[in-house]
Design goal:
The structure holds 2 protein chains of 2 kinds. Chain A is an alpha/beta fold. Chain A has helices at about 5-10, 35-50, 60-80, 95-110, 125-135, 160, 185-195, 215, 240-245, 280-300, 300-320, 350-355, 370-375, 390-410; strands at about 15-20, 20, 25, 85-90, 115-120, 140-145, 145, 155, 165-175, 200, 220-225, 235-240, 260, 265-270, 325, 340-345, 360, 365, 380-385. Helix content of chain A is about 40%, strand content about 20%. Chain B has helices at about 1-5, 10-15, 65-80, 85-100, 120-135; strands at about 30-35, 40-50, 55-60, 145. The chains are: A alpha/beta, B alpha+beta.
Chain lengths: ~400, ~150
Amino acid sequence: MPDWNQIRLDFPTLRQEVNGKPLVYLDSGATSQKPQVVLDSLARFYLKDNANVHRGIHALSMRATDAFEGARARTARFINAADSAEIVFTRGTTESVNLVASSWCSANLRKGDVVLLTEMEHHSNLVPWQQAAARAGATLRYVPVVGADAELGLDLEALDRLLTPEVKLFAFTHSSNTLGIINPAAELCARARKVGSLTLIDAAQSIGHLPVDVQALGCDFLAFSGHKMLGPTGIGVLYGRKALLDAMPPYQTGGGMISSVDFFESRWKPSPERFEAGTPNVADAVSLAVAMDYLDGIGREAIEAHDRELGAYMMESLADVSGIRILGPRAGMPRSGLVSFALADAHAHDVVTFADQDGIALRGGHHCNQPMMRKLGLASTSRASCYVYNTREDIDRMVASLRRIVKFFSGA
Amino acid sequence: MSDLTDLYQQVILDHNKRPRNRGKLPTANRVAHGDNPTCGDQCSVYLRLDGDRVAEISFDGSGCAISQASASLMTTQVKGKTPAEIEALFKNFHHIVTTGEMPEDISDIAAFAGVHTFPARIKCATLGWHAALNALKGDPTTVKTE
């Protein structure tokens, strides 16, 4: 078992007081804090190796290229991709999804086709498909989210009805950023494959929190960000099966992605370079690989268990806060360390302001899940999300703060 | 908690719990909506302009205590006033929530002075006011306080 209290010491940001109280950071669903090794990697790259990659003959350029391509290979290993050419570096999950929605859809999505989504998608895995469908004359379908507040999940029985041969792509989140639900991704991919549909997994909330093996999952595309998995902001990944990527048109064009350019026409390199026009984000890619080493040093099974334990503990500890509505999966179902809730007496933004005064970082709002929140009859919730540096004491402090909030507002 | 009790003054808590002039106004001849996309705060303002005075006003919506209390208090302040007077009131209010400075003639809106130490919440406090000003301009488009 990792020593979680020891792990917390690796994160310099957490060693501070906020409003006179030791910081409790419960907003890792939005972005994670960074361990010292990742910060050191960023500094080291700029201090020692900084140069542009590819086409360089000089020493620094070769070092930078090796480090960048090494990060690609490390990423392939991290998600068990068959080939590092299946790893495209992007700015983050949003750009990865947009890349597929723009490039793959422009070549493959036709009038009458269907893109299947779920009702729990983050706007970043919803709006790009709305746009792509509108361009192609295709339509969207949604797998419903069903169940009582604390027993929510995808309606898997509806899936057979929804997964018809018109479905060309099924894009869904691996782990919900609002509900703390972990979806049965391998099963969803297998069922999509039966009707000939491709799959894209939004792994923004799952990557770095549990083992992700693209071959075991059987997905065609997988998108994630570096900053939610202890890495830097501004770097993300699109995994795509090689044959699919090589058949896709470019997303952006320019330097670095061409094999030859004439005044009136150009040819493209194969993937992944085809999708990496311009100077890539080298320092952040290299430092993302360091975050992967750090996570595997702890062990992703251990992190998954830690998250699940803290998630369940939060559900339990919050249950008797007066007037609370807690969202989440049924007890015993796969879950993450993220819980969102609404208080009858205090709006989410009042909750977050109060908690902040106690040094506790929460998030309040619609969490980029507007359609689903509307369906659940909620304008906003407060959300607490855990990671490797959180402990039960953090949750105890949050619950104590919430009880004071309820007292303050209900007593008024 | 001192900053918090400054922010959540009794006047604010009271208007949040017992909002004044809440609900649609059937006789309204002006309507505008305010929207705070990041937190989901919403506020619709309905008013009846009679000549150059606000004869009746109401608001409807959902959101945090600051946004709802501010909208409620706003309705009590602007009733019977002309658009120019209301704009002057808003200027005063905006000054209070951004600087914390109290006006000479202390009124209930001074209760919002505590907002200035919470810059992220200024947009909550001004949502209802922006909707009301838009309604007065006859601009039905949704205002976003972002």
